[in-house]
């Protein structure tokens, strides 16, 4: 177990504490199950990382909620929805969708499946604590690179275009992982159509660029934290994909950085949170924005969420992505050099979450 030296955080060997925590293979939940009452120093966030920007809870600032009902049946409604999606993607980089076509019982079962995985016996989970399996379970992928360990556990798997064998998925949630990933991919195709139209492109443009070809599912578990004011569930970061579809439970904790203020993204029954990733900002030449966000630690948990990343980062692919030619002009020249999805992912993953506070896109800017 990781010992807590919270009373004197300077008197500890950070490297050995990280190693000891990693070797438990029990994650943050293991610390909670062991009954800790003080936050181990490896989880202490620098104060400026938590407090640099104020949290604004003024109702005039709220993430747009877009109703997708009849988007496929009524052209006039579709045009309204396209306008709303475009406006949200330009101003916020985030929006929520309701009436998106994924049944509520599928959403609930997906969240329940995540809980079942984390609440099963430790020995059953530990077999996934490796990078050599299709399903990878750990606490923080950047455990040794980050400034502080995030207060969460994660298991993940690429579900498209080459999904794992069903028997390689955890028995307690394999069926719902397969079903939910299929439904999310269908929603992803629809969202990319709407985003294409919002950019003034033909409906299938982003889909034909393979923006929805790859799907990575990340299943997060945030236990109640003994000192949530000292920790973060996920540090400030932007996503290195095209778009992300997030399912969050009723507890909340997601915040978006908007005009140098943190804005809560409150859970809404049946809603999914959509955000623009770095790669879509790059190919849209900054028409759409990839916005930094974080998850605060909580004292009531466990909170669960499922983030589905549309990206082909693990698929060998030499395709170059740069600003879309149809969007460029003398007044709007390209702002980024071309890159492959793999190159972008290797660069951003190698730098960890919020290590230097600068957007990874800056590295690719002309």
From TrEMBL:
The keyword Cell inner membrane does not apply. One of its GO terms (molecular function) is metal ion binding. Keywords: Dioxygenase, Iron, Metal-binding, Oxidoreductase. Pfam families: 2OG-FeII_Oxy, DIOX_N. Residues 213-313 form the Fe2OG dioxygenase domain. InterPro entries: DIOX_N (IPR026992), IPNS-like_FE2OG_OXY (IPR044861), IPNS-like_sf (IPR027443), Oxoglu/Fe-dep_dioxygenase_dom (IPR005123). Its cofactor is Fe cation. Belongs to the iron/ascorbate-dependent oxidoreductase family. This is Oxoglutarate/iron-dependent dioxygenase. It comes from Corchorus olitorius. The lineage of its organism: Eukaryota, Viridiplantae, Streptophyta, Embryophyta, Tracheophyta.
């Amino acid at each position: 177990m990781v010992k807590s030296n919270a009373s004197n955080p300077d008197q500890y060997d950070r490297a050995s504490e990280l190693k000891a925590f990693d070797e438990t293979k029990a994650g943050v939940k293991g610390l909670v199950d062991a009954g800790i009452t003080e936050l181990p120093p490896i989880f202490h966030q620098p104060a400026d990382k938590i407090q640099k920007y104020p949290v604004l809870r003024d109702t005039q600032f709220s993430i747009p909620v877009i109703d997708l009902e009849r988007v496929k049946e009524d052209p006039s409604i579709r045009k309204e929805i396209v306008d709303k999606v475009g406006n949200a993607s330009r101003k916020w980089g985030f929006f929520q969708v309701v009436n998106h076509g994924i049944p509520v019982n599928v959403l609930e079962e997906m969240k329940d499946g995540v809980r079942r995985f984390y609440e099963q016996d430790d020995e059953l989970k530990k077999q996934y604590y490796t990078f050599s399996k299709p399903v990878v379970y750990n606490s923080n992928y950047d455990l040794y690179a980050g400034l502080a360990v995030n207060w969460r556990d994660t298991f993940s798997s690429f579900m498209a275009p080459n999904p794992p064998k069903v028997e390689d998925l955890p028995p307690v949630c394999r069926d719902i992982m397969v079903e939910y990933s299929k439904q999310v991919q269908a929603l992803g195709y629809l969202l990319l159509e709407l985003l294409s139209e919002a950019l003034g492109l033909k409906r299938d443009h982003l889909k034909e660029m393979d923006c929805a070809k790859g799907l990575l599912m990340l299943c997060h578990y945030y236990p109640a934290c003994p000192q949530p004011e000292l920790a973060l569930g996920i540090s400030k970061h932007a996503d290195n994909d095209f778009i992300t579809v997030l399912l969050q439970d009723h507890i909340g904790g997601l915040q978006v950085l908007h005009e140098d203020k943190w804005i809560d993204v409150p859970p809404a029954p049946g809603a999914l949170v959509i955000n623009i990733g770095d790669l879509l900002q790059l190919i849209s030449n900054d028409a759409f924005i990839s916005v930094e966000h974080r998850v605060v630690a909580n004292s009531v948990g466990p909170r669960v969420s499922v983030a589905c990343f549309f990206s082909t980062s693990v698929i060998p692919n030499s395709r170059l992505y740069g600003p879309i030619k149809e969007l460029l002009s003398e007044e709007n020249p390209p702002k980024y050099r071309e890159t492959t999805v793999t190159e972008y992912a290797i660069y951003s993953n190698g730098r960890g979450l919020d290590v230097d506070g600068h957007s990874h896109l800056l590295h690719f800017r002309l």
